[in-house]
Write a structure and sequence with these properties.
357 residues, alpha/beta, TIM Barrel, Radical SAM protein, catalytic activity
Amino acid sequence: MQNGEYIKGRGAQGNRSNRFDEHQHEILDDFRNYCSAEGDEVRDSKTSIIDTFPKSIVNKVTSPDIGMEYSLNPYQGCEHGCIYCYARNSHEYWGYSAGLDFEQKILVKKNAVSLLEKKISSPRWEAKPIVLSGNTDCYQPIEKKLKITRSLLQCFLKYRHPVGIITKNALIQRDLDILRELAQDNLVHVNLSVTSLEEETRRILEPRTASIKKRLETIENLSNAGIPVSVMMAPIIPAINSHEIMPLVKEIAKRGALGVGYTIVRLNGAIGEIFSEWIYKTMPDRAEKVLHQIKNIHGGSLNDSRFGIRMKGEGEFAAQVSQQFKIARKLYLKDRKKPRLNCKLHESYKDGQMKLF
């Protein structure tokens, strides 16, 4: 576990070694002391934007635990810095760390729109919902400047193709004009992530995300605009947000949400060390309890890769969480149902134009 003060504004408190690297890098105390004496930072705290040009953009999702068949991620890495994020591990495939690198080195897929257009205009493509984003947030801070997600939505609208959105950023409201048009033909559904109603919990768990107030307002504004919106309370972390299930579902129901889903925290790969280092710094009085309870949920380990179990966990705690969500849905979301996305229009718009016959 690394020493040093808490790094404000970031989730991870350092970089873990990349499992694919032949060599490991360690910052020695001598260098830390030198930087301190000189008034310099040990690491560059700025976010770097790295342009990439992939050959494909729509990914087939094969996991039986994830409720999507295709996903599209315009960005790799995520400046939101959520400490628990399962996507951190994917950054190692790009040669970076799952720790601070994941939050500070953001890979931008500059040709995302042209790749999407090529994919969904192909005669061989049969329309099925594509989700933005299954891995990293499509509305993370750099989107405000680059507007790649907005351009992708315009492409989906042009071809009348169904799209799902997962985000925890209020920036999605910027694109209400496009979302309204998509919703008129039942071509869009939004899942907004709300992990807690407590701002202090949000601030340390998800340091660069939209505030809880902004997210609740976003649910309400999307709903009032006729855009189907549900909420993901993900992840449930014992002794951190597990006590909030009932009040959170009640609040999102008041704002117009059509449904709620959840996952239980699992700390696969490098995330186990990253999360452990973080919790000993931010919640030292609760650290042992939280880590112990997470292990109880996942067969004695922080790491759980078992299909069918890994997302919901097992044991008494997992059963209690499941029961609370059943009760909460019955009390606050009864008879609400999100509409099925429309996959029938796209064929008539394959060339970007409506066919007369």
